[in-house]
Amino acid sequence: MQPQQSSRFFFNVDWVTILIYVALCVIGFLNIYSVQFKPDTAQGFSFTAEYGKQLIFVVTGLVLGLSILLFDAKFFSVFAPVIYGITIVLLLAVLVVGRNVGGNQAWIPLGSFRLQPSEFAKFGTALLLARYISSFNVKLNSVRPVLICIAIIVLPMGLIILQPDAGSMLVFLSFMFPLYREGLPGNLLIIFWGAVLLFILNLFLSPFILIFSILVIGGLFAYNNRKRLQKMINIGIITLIAICYLFVAKYAFNNILLPHQRTRIELILGLTSDNKGAGWNVIQSKIAIGSGQVTGRGFLQGTQAKYGYLPAKSTDFIFSTVGEEWGFVGCFVVICLYVFLLLRIVNMAERQRSSFSRVYGYCIACIIFFHLFINIGMAIGIMPVIGIPLPFISYGGSSLWSFTILLFIFLKLDSNRMGFI
User: Fold this and answer.
1) Which residue, 307, 256, 309, is CA-closest to 283?
2) CB of 70 within 8 A of CB of 415?
3) Is 272 helix (H, G, I), strand (E, B) or coil?
4) Dihedral angle at the C-alpha atoms of 362, 366, 372, 378, nearest 10 degrees?
5) Residue 397 is part of which domain span?
6) Which residue, 76, 89, 95, 243, is the most exposed by fewest CB within 10 angstroms?
7) Separation between Cα atoms, residue 72 and residue 9, nearest integer Å
8) Total of domains in the chain
9) 115-128 pLDDT, tens digit each
10) Residue 193 maps to a domain
11) What's the distance, Cα to Cα, between the start and end of the chain in Å?
């Protein structure tokens, strides 16, 4: 660091955002400790228990984050391709030496610690996207740069789905929104949501009905543009792609998603009901949140999570433990902290002089929002249970460290925004 930068270090860093980060980490630790606390048995603090390990993750994560602030801001732009390449190598390695947990071969064992490469691939992908868009003055209204951006996103997605980890793979779809901010045509977003709609309709309706409907709609558009040959050709291509997509989506649902993932999607869409099997998690989650009422049962007083009724109580359904012990007030505070964090990140992204920093900032905001929306949606039963953590709160070193790296890289870029162009 240059002397002038060093002297202004404490003034330039957004310490309010760091305080929000610390607050969320503390909330996570307290809830993980609470769900493991057994009032009827004498127990001392143990670093081998989940809460003990999480404390280590929080402390080392904070040290890691503060260390990132000492880097030169240009380091992350210059070495973005290298960082991305390392995360891709890790995703390849996990397919060979990874440990299978819960049907997913997504972790590399390192002694007593398990590294999850898909978590670190998020900031690697965000860095390379920001580097590509900023370094080459990319205009996202032409085909070639859009295809390159899609390739950067799809490569880690493809490797993650081979694990198979559909939840982590879906997170990468959030990168589409930073691209839209940088000029991606709105038609592509319409196509994206159209694909989501077709995927859902594909579960409800016969393929013959859908194909017939697509042909009719395509025919109507072609008839209205019958005097414009190029538009008719484009409509024909889109119609053919939509029909092919139906078969690809059906194959992916039946052969790539795991049985419990298919069942969870069917439950959320109302295609099936199962109060004792796959639906048990969501039912117990709703009971836990509802039992907290306004102010909650109190710290260490939860029963649903503590006595084993609620599965994944410190990871996927950690928000349910917040609702049970801290009630509506606690849930409201946690959501407000996230909203405040997201608003600060977006505000910081907009004030960047560097397009690299702006794109990266929006990538972070979208990743955190996607995790937040899906995780809380799982807990209250409006989203399928796909197993993604609540940022900074859920148990896990890989998750906490990857979100810490994501956030603190941006804090460093923002602290140097007047000198990094």
Assistant:
1) 309
2) no
3) coil
4) 180
5) 3-204+257-415
6) 89
7) 12
8) 1
9) 899 999 999 999 99
10) yes
11) 17
